[in-house]
Amino acid sequence: KELNVGDILEMIATDPGSIPDMQAWARQTKHELLEAKEEDSVYRFIIKKTH
User: Residue 45 in contact with residue 33, Cβ under 8 Å?
Assistant: First the structure.
């Protein structure tokens, strides 16, 4: 699926390394990482497409 500018994507991961990976990815791609949290070894990321 393609996202439009302003759309929100939720990504779920179980790899603890996904936290720094997603932070770096958001910086490199200039998309906005709105939320990153861990609960019971599940990592949830909310990302806003900015361009």
Answer: yes
The token pair that represents 51 in the structure block: 């361009």
Rounded Cα distance, 43 and 51, in Å: 25
**pTM recorded for the entire structure:** 0.88
Q: State which CATH number among 3.30.110.40, 3.30.1360.40, 3.40.50.2300, 1.10.10.60 fits the domain covering 8-48.
A: 3.30.110.40
Q: How far apart are CA 48 and CA 26, in angstroms?
A: 9
Q: What is the pLDDT along the chain (51 residues), one digit of tens a residue?
A: 799 999 999 999 999 999 999 999 999 999 999 999 999 999 999 999 999
